[in-house]
Amino acid sequence: MFGSSGSSAKSSTRHLGVIAKTQHSLSESWKISAGMGLANTEFSLGSQRKRGNSLVSEFRIGMEISDDFWTEAGILTIDSSSGSGSGDQRLGSTGYLMGFSYGF
Question: How far apart are CA 53 and CA 94, in angstroms?
């Protein structure tokens, strides 16, 4: 990505992102939530920098088991592209995360 530069170069990464979410009740004990967001990542190695952008979407459905206990299942999708310079190759990827959560 950056070529050989020895072992003395220092690297750093910065991330900035935002997601907007909404939640709706389907019934007294069922709820759904959905969200969309954007993220920007910058990776630096020495004086060279690479940037990437991501589009994030989320969907969850949850059920109230008791007054103080919830369970949820959901999917998070991250659609990314990298390279922002005129000589960069535009590389893209999509990641899917599925999960279950429990809360009090």
Answer: 12
pLDDT tens-digit map of 32-45? 999 999 988 888 87
pTM above 0.70, yes or no: no
What are the domain boundaries of the chain? Answer: 23-103
For residue 76, which of 103, 52, 94, 102 has the smallest C-alpha distance?
94
C-alpha count within 13 angstroms, C-beta hemisphere, residue 104: 0
Contacts of 11 (CB under 8 A, 6+ apart): 43, 44, 45, 46
The span from the CA of 77 to the CA of 70, in Å, is 23
